[in-house]
Write a structure and sequence with these properties.
- With about 475 residues, the chain is an alpha+beta fold.
- The chain is about 25% helix and about 35% strand.
- It is built from nine helices and 23 strands.
- Strands 1, 2, 3, 4, 5, 6, 7, 8, 9, 10, 11, 12, 13 and 14 form a 14-stranded mixed sheet that branches.
- Helix 5 packs antiparallel against helix 7 and helix 7 crosses helix 8.
- The protein is globular and about 75 Å long.
- The termini are far apart.
């Protein structure tokens, strides 16, 4: 189970990284270079990655939506039991309302671990994946397919029609070949970060893809998933009419993928996906403004085969029998007969140091837990909190968080944006923070939560 489930998760990364189906279209020798790079990257035993994701959506009733996400992590043990480490920062803004999207997670030996308020807990993927699948299916039916209430409330993990629809959709997606709808061009080679690099741009004809037989199969699969009671087969005329309508809706859609191949090592080092879509719903007889979606994903890869094994967090509590303790209306229909096994959680021991104003204090990050410092502020005080890495540039990306004595977050910074020449871009700084009299916690960590190294922390008191 562990390798199978985790392999599926890691496969999502491979889909973005390799993109082998987009390779044809370039000259033969260029095609060979790109294809070999995709295969070489897939065969790496481990690699590190970091990414930036920007998604903007307008025309929805709730107001314009913006997803701005940054993340980094690593994938290891791909030849045996794959493991994943992931940290994200950013958030979702809809109609001017912002929701942070800060996540620290690991997948090790078939267990998904999540860090919440400095406490790690885990859930077997064998239980988590079906639950997430159920939520996605129910949300799809309720929000996009306009299905009946009975269809929305169907428990997808148990309903035979839903399972059949999911299997059919997976088969259609597996058979969706982009080769005939993609044009790939190799640009002039150029150095990127001092590495000789070949850059490729692939453009996908989305409208033609939707009109194809394989594209029609995917559309029919989505309709059946939206409402399992819908017909499992459409007549030729119905399929053609549906295909023409969908193609018309997506005729203003562009999809490009850029890939950068290192000429010195033959690996894919960067993948950039750009999607621009405008859907005029009036063409389908629906009211409302046109939907506009713009997506940019910039994924960077490094350290192939050189990443240490990812370890499960110490003292993490693993929760079994997730369906017994999580209630999702309309999704979880009944608990299983097996009660969750009792578990205990031993908190990670933490030493809280004291720090005085204008006094640089050296700390050592262990990679297992952040370091907390206690600062006692006078009334009406304004300070800047600066964290400077003492390691080689690029070895330690720090974060700093300011909390009240009862652990309520007041401020946070990852990469400082000051004009100071004594700090690296990956150092951290909270500037001009007003404080009331009392004790505060300064929490210092690495961005991944697993990096080790020394850093210098200074609370600079600002004198009016």
């Amino acid at each position: 189970m562990t390798r199978h489930r985790t392999g599926r998760l890691i496969g999502i990364l491979y889909l973005l990284v390799a993109g082998a189906g987009l390779a044809p279209g370039a000259a033969q020798q260029d095609d060979a270079l790109l294809t070999e790079a995709a295969a070489r990257t897939r065969q790496a035993s481990s690699f590190q990655f970091d990414f930036d994701l920007l998604l903007m959506l307008s025309g929805i009733p709730q107001g314009d939506a913006l997803v701005n996400l940054r993340g980094e992590g690593a994938v290891t043990d791909l030849e045996t039991t794959p493991a994943l480490s992931l940290v994200t920062d950013g958030g979702l803004t809809i109609g001017g309302r912002h929701t942070p999207a800060i996540l620290q997670a690991r997948v090790v030996d078939g267990i998904a671990y999540f860090n919440r308020q400095e406490r790690w807990s885990g859930t077997p993927l064998s239980e988590l994946v079906p639950l997430v699948q159920d939520v996605i299916v129910s949300s799809f039916r309720a929000g996009f397919a306009g299905a009946s209430e009975a269809a929305v409330l169907t428990h997808s993990a148990a309903d035979p029609l839903t399972r059949e629809a999911l299997d059919a959709l997976r088969l259609s997606l597996n058979n969706l070949d982009l080769i005939g709808f993609t044009e790939t061009v190799r640009h002039e080679d150029e150095p990127v970060n001092d590495r000789p690099t070949a850059r490729y741009t692939s453009t996908v004809d989305v409208a033609a893809l939707v009109r194809s037989d394989a594209g029609q199969n995917v559309i029919v699969g989505l309709l059946q998933l939206g409402d399992p009671a819908s017909p499992q087969a459409l007549s030729g005329a119905e399929r053609n009419a549906l295909s023409a309508l969908i193609a018309q809706l997506f005729d203003q859609t562009t999809l490009t993928v850029e890939r950068y191949v290192g000429l010195d090592d033959g690996y894919l080092h960067r993948v950039v996906v750009e999607l621009a879509m405008t859907v005029d719903t009036a063409r389908a007889g629906a009211s409302g403004l046109p939907l506009t979606l713009n997506l940019n994903l910039d994924l960077r890869l490094s350290n192939f085969g050189g990443v240490p094994a990812i370890q499960a967090p110490e003292n993490a509590m693993v929760i079994a029998g997730l369906a017994n303790v999580v209630s999702v209306p309309g999704v979880i229909t009944a608990p299983t007969a097996r009660a969750p096994e009792p578990a205990t959680l031993t908190p990670v021991p933490r030493v809280i140091l004291s720090i005085a104003p204008n006094t640089p204090t050296t700390i050592a990050l262990s990679g297992a837990a952040p370091t907390d410092l206690r600062y006692s502020a006078a009334s009406g005080e304004t300070v800047s909190i600066v964290v400077r890495s003492l390691e080689e540039p690029g070895a330690l990306d720090t974060t700093v968080e300011l909390l009240t004595s009862n652990a309520i977050r007041l401020n946070y910074n990852d990469d400082q944006a000051t004009v100071r020449d004594d700090l690296l871009s990956t150092d951290s700084a909270i500037e001009g923070q007003a404080l009331e009299a009392g004790d505060y916690i300064i929490r210092v960590n690495s961005f991944t939560g697993t990096a080790q190294g020394s850093a210098e922390v200074t609370v600079e008191r600002i004198v009016p």
